[in-house]
Write a structure and sequence with these properties.
The complex is a heterodimer of chains A (27) and B (98). Chain A is an all-beta fold and 27 residues long. Chain A contains no helices and two strands. Chain A has a two-stranded antiparallel ribbon with strand order 1-2. The chains are: A mainly beta (27), B alpha+beta (98).
């Protein structure tokens, strides 16, 4: 699974990973 | 809490002791946002219950390119609702703290 890390200039770290399909609302 | 289309959950179990908690946020219903985000991933981040405000984190997400600035309020509200619930639970479990 690809995981992306984004570090904001304020120093906060955001870690982005795919959302499991089971957690996505039916649309 | 109101269904904002943006879901925020705890990314780790809350032991009620740390002021900093790990949260995970993802878009459940992009139609509720003004501008559809480019990525549909879950964003994990830490939030300090004592020092930070949900609006600050939402602004940082906008600046990092996750959301359009027109959606900063809805993202901030989604985080605020979850944080309020966490603080309410902490207060129930251990009154006088938090």
């Amino acid at each position: 699974i690809a995981v992306t890390q984004v570090v904001h200039s304020a120093g906060r770290r955001f870690i982005v990973s795919p959302v499991p399909e089971s957690r996505l609302k039916d649309q | 809490a109101e269904d904002t289309g943006v879901r925020v959950e705890l990314a780790e179990e809350d032991n009620g002791r740390k002021s900093s908690i790990a949260l995970r946020l993802w878009v459940e219903d992009a139609k509720k946002l003004k501008v559809k985000p480019k990525d549909n991933g879950a964003i994990e981040f830490t939030f300090d219950l004592e020092k930070e405000t949900p609006e600050d984190v939402a602004q940082e997400m906008v600046e990092s390119g996750f959301f359009h600035e027109n959606d900063v309020k809805i993202v901030g509200k989604s985080i605020r609702d979850r944080v309020a619930l966490i603080q309410w639970r902490r207060e129930r479990i251990c009154p006088g703290h938090g």
